[in-house]
Amino acid sequence: MKLTDFITNSDVRTYILGKSMAGRIFPARDDREAWAGVPIDLQQAWVTQAESYLDYEWPSLRATAFMAYFEEGSRKPYDSVETERRNALCTLLIAECIEAKGRFLREIMNVVWLLCEQTTWCAPAHHYLSLKPEEFLSNVEEPLFDLSAGETAALLAWTFHLLKSPLDEISPLIRARIRVELERRIIAPYMARNDFWWMGFGEREVNNWNPWCNANMLTVLLLLDMEPERKAALYDKVLRSLDRYVEVQFDDGGCDEGSTYWARAAGMLLVNLELLYRASDGALSVYDQPLIKKLGQFVYNMNIDGHYYVNFADGSAIASQDYGMIHLYGSRIQDDQLRALGQIGFRTYRVPDRRGKGISFFQEMISLHSFANIQQEAALAPPLKQDVWLPNLQVMAARELEGSSQGLFAAIKGGHNDESHNHNDIGHFVIYVNGKPFLIDIGVEMYTQKTFSPQRYEIWTMQSGYHSVPVINGFEQKEGRTFRAEDVTYENSVDTVRFGVELASAYPAEAGVQSWHRSLTLRRGLNPIIELQESCLFTEPTDQLLLHMMSSQPPQHLKQGQIRLQDQANNQLILFYEHEQWEAVIEHITVTDESLTRVWGDSLYRIQFQLRHAVQQGNWVFQMAEKLK
């Protein structure tokens, strides 16, 4: 699929070019009826947050903070201040639109001034986009368009658009300065350069950066006036760039960046599609296309229960989804299961303290202006799918009962070890009981310089030794596209679902493995059970085999061949293994990283099954159930 097959440059000229955007995408500040429709408690929450920025001591952005990323590997010194500036402007802008009294204009002017004075809008971690990436500071003469620059640009464009009259009454130079900076930092480099990898015009495959950056570019285009032919050329480039993203999406809608990244992948594609839809009064739409529908459905296909999601790759088991956007996506593609997920998540929507967390004006506006209607909708059944099979992504998920989180849940993946945000995890699986995690995917620590460097796989959370896959003769899986799953199979019946995969090609030749076939089977019925079967063949006899399972609950040895995992709510999972073949060693892991403690607390556990006797050929079965046999 290509977007340009459905939305042409001629369509853009007909339905968007030259049209006023006043009130088309979101209500204008002076549309008091629309803003009065926002529930009072949400209005007050935004206003209260904005009041905390009145007479605010704005933090400075130091050169040494920018350099800290290169010298210490830390993103926090610079990124935290820049994020706080954007969050402040977003909060103040929304509060000013809610009140329309001018009370927040002076602080809006202050933060706009600060953003326009920044040497760069590009994050230090993305400075590699520069033509001289070896420099530890940014060159003011080379504006770089990354995720951070795009977010800043879009927010300034909304400020420019929504506060035209009140800002011009203070001084027309405020909006004039915004225009200068958007032209210099965003519009000109976007038009002039094709070598930003995320555009998709080079050899590197694009990821979520593409729709994310393009959504921000499209926002600027829609909200700023400029010469029509130049604007038409920019629209054309945005659509051609988005084509590069759409073209590499799996037909099954699977996102190899994981469910946590859905909001920044398919969710950002939705922002582009919705901007075009609203700007054209609904004339430009591809919401009926099968691929667009599949991309939206991925998020509920990976939902385990509540805020728990299957979290392969750099994802978190507890995903902070944007449920207003999920509901919007479901409404546009007429999918009640996606709408239902939006409803469920949106019931707990609040306006929390967003300091330290990035927020998006577009997403917040969707939530604010749809909240009341969503709350009044008839409740839809939860979209807890009994069986999910994504053949292109090579991911299976299965549960005991359709529409219920009760009982056993299993998910397993194939794929390759060069996926976006990759972990070396081919054949990795997770097990949940009654919607709660027991055998887990750890996730990823807070990002540092090392995370996206050649040393990525020195980080423990990326290594296959901390996933539920074997270590063979001391060798873990290797990174790279050639290290991949083979002979992936999926079988499904009313009572049984099975995933099979050949793992040998995920390991280097030195591992000496000719074949390692893994199958994971969920058997439903009166005595539901999950069965893991391992069948392998080696070039020489070996006893140097380890099987790992990561747990969020402390493992307890019962009698020989049995381990119990139990949470505080007395949910439990019993592991059955062949004690005469395997010795089970339990390792406690102290967790200190903030991203991990938020999900798991301060402890994780690694169950390490060590082979007792040398074999050249093996066939073993591990079983998992809620009850003792």
From TrEMBL:
Cellular location(s): Cell envelope
Pfam family, one: Hepar_II_III_C
UniProt cross-references to InterPro entries, sorted A to Z: Chondroitin_lyas (IPR008929), Hepar_II_III_C (IPR012480)
Protein name: Heparinase II/III-like C-terminal domain-containing protein
Domain of life: Bacteria
Start and end residues of each Heparinase II/III-like C-terminal domain: 415-521
Chief location bin: other
